[in-house]
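Friendly challenge for the regulars: who can give me the structure tokens for this chain first? No prize, just bragging rights.
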Amino acid sequence: MYDIIGDIHGEAETLKKLLKSLGYNDSEEGFFHPERKAVFVGDFVDRGPQIFETLKIVKKMVTSNNAYAVVGNHELNVLAYYTKDEDGAYLRDHNLKNKTQIKKTYEEFKIDKEKRKKYLKWLRTLPIFLELDGFRVVHASWDDKAVELIRRENPENRLSKKFLRRIYFERGEVFNALMLLLKGREFNMPDDMVLKDGYGFKRSAYRIKWWEPMQGKSFNDISFGNKFKLPSYTIPIELCYDIPLYPESDLPVFFGHYCLNEKAGVIRNNLCCVDGCIANGGVMIAYRWDNKKLDQSNLIRIEKVKKVEAF
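First reply, four minutes later:
Bragging rights claimed.
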């Protein structure tokens, strides 16, 4: 049996509280459960006060075979920020926007370069997606075509330096497939519409439901996990496109990414978002998988542990 754990974002003390509430015991080799394994959906870094401590907990559990973990878009951003191409330029520009997005991680990483090197190396070993006993795990969205493309072009299913250098150079279909799995499907706004996110950055696109068609719906109807207001009128047919929908008959998919607060949990009979938005006033969530039909009562929610000293 498994416990699928949502986005952590440096909230190590809350993670410890969650693991203990699930019956995991701490040891020299990290947290373990005599009968269960944890499965982390990514986004361990950024925003919270204890990045190194969070990575330490998850790494110990994974390397001692007490947990699985996939990477999230925040791990991708951090890896690209610290990875150089063959000409010596960083894959992700060191501009103000990119530095701000990884601010908490950057601040901890700069005080201990050896730790930084160790954890970056470990993050490169984590899979992009998982298929386990009767369910699937990915950070943001499951798309069969994208998964098969990654399998073919990157059989190791890892964010190695070689793979990252290649896709950031090409910016082609493999890059787009990775973005779809780790950042989800997005809708590009018309040129005359401008959005600003909660951090004040302008957005030309927003996150949408990747399992429903958009035809005949409003901009707001197709939105999923966004914190800004969207128009309630119907999307012009010229702007609609076909989404390869995830069938209700396929295996359950667990994912994070969308910061759903109280709306987190079972979205559909085979879809479950375990991101309770711990980084922005929400809770940390785990789903206790029992190999049965998805059930909201299997969710465990833990309030944030407050007054944690930053590194």
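Residues 16 and 57 are 8 Å apart (CA to CA). The first strand starts at residue 2 and ends at 5. Your move, everyone else.
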